[in-house]
Write a structure and sequence with these properties.
By secondary structure, the protein is of the alpha/beta class. The chain is built from 13 helices and ten strands. The chain binds N-carbamoyl-L-aspartate (NCD).
């Protein structure tokens, strides 16, 4: 790390466009209750997040040895939107803990195509499974289902809302790659308006005192209500250019433009390809930063970044299994909170 880079870091709080002033302390929400479902990052307090990460770290050291834990359980994965990592890592996690998995990954091949509502499908599946993992295009879908059924529900992505399990595996990855979580400066780059992973991750980063640098193409900034919420959590958030973010961040979290959320495709065409992380830029501006991406990528991270030692996105995807093992074991009360 060069001294220039260190100077740039010290300069960071003086950014003219700081949206929320740095806070003096952390807000640690205290909840005496253990969550029944995981619908939002707000459902877990800081102690519970730490517990999830610690259990995940244990599982990460020994993914094979715990088939006894959920041997008498059935987990249902209901995916009304495309998925590779989230569904497969949930199913791998359930299998690693000895649970059986039933799945609905193609709504066109289910009664949804006959007009069955999400609520009716959920009521049916609660009779078949001990826990439901749900991905759905509608914001708030997981919360709606959780209010209807008596089994735990895990939100695996609800439209442009939240993706709390991704955010937990992102935190786990930051802790693993950087050695610690607190105070890490994280650049959140891309479609911050529609990207549910950054909606969840920013809420968790705020609670761990991680300053955030926001970089987005025009029209794709973090939604104002979320920004206000981060302010209430005492977060240190600033808007930055791509170069400023690279030069000042410990973690560079790149996301894709969420094409499927655009009503007007011309709007998407206007912003597509507007940022791209290359190996050259990493070497020049961020040689010691950890590069993350929830994946899938389109063109925002060049293939030549993959071979850099600080490219962590494939390790990050792998962390989905131990983190989701931890969530399943804790929510199904196979391990104490
Ligand atoms: C993300 C999602 O579905 O929100 N994917 C994932 O779960 N890793 C990110 C994305 O689709 O861009």
């Amino acid at each position: 790390m060069t001294s220039d880079r260190n100077d740039a870091r010290r300069d960071l709080p003086r950014f003219p466009n700081v949206l929320i002033p740095p806070s003096s302390g952390l807000i640690i929400p205290s909840s005496p209750h253990h969550p029944v479902s995981l619908l939002s990052t707000a459902d877990v307090d800081r102690t519970q997040v730490q517990r999830i990460l610690d259990v995940a770290a244990d599982f990460g050291r020994n993914v094979r040895g715990r088939r006894d834990l959920l041997g008498d359980h059935v987990v249902a994965t209901l995916f009304f939107e495309p998925s590779t990592r989230t569904r497969l890592s949930f199913e791998a996690a359930a299998n690693r803990l000895g649970a059986r998995v039933i799945t609905m990954s193609d709504p066109a091949a289910s009664s949804t195509s006959k007009g069955e509502t999400l609520d009716d499908t959920a009521r049916i599946v609660e009779g078949y499974a001990d826990l439901i993992v749900l991905r759905h295009p509608q914001d708030g879908a997981a919360r709606e289902v959780a209010a209807l059924v008596s089994v735990p529900v895990i939100n695996a992505g609800d439209g442009t809302g939240e993706h709390p399990t991704q955010a937990l595996l992102d935190l786990f990855t930051i802790r693993q790659e950087r050695g610690r979580l607190e105070g890490q400066r994280v650049a959140l780059i891309g479609d911050l308006r529609n990207g549910r992973t950054v909606h969840s991750l920013s809420r968790l980063l705020a609670r761990f005192g991680c300053p955030m640098l926001l970089v987005s193409p025009p029209g794709l900034a973090l939604p104002a209500p979320l920004l206000a919420e981060l302010g209430e959590l005492g977060a240190n958030v600033a808007v930055a250019t791509f170069e400023e973010a690279l030069s000042n961040a410990d973690v560079i979290y790149v996301t894709r433009i969420q094409k499927e959320r655009f009503v007007d495709l011309a709007e998407y065409e206007a912003v597509r390809g507007s940022y791209r992380l290359t190996a050259d830029a990493v070497r020049r501006l961020a040689p010691a930063a950890t590069i993350m991406h929830p994946l899938p990528r389109v063109d925002e991270v060049a293939l030549d970044v993959d071979t850099l030692p600080n490219a962590a996105y494939f390790r990050q995807a792998g962390n989905g299994v131990p983190v989701r093992m931890a969530l399943l074991a804790l929510l199904l009360r196979a391990l104490p909170w």
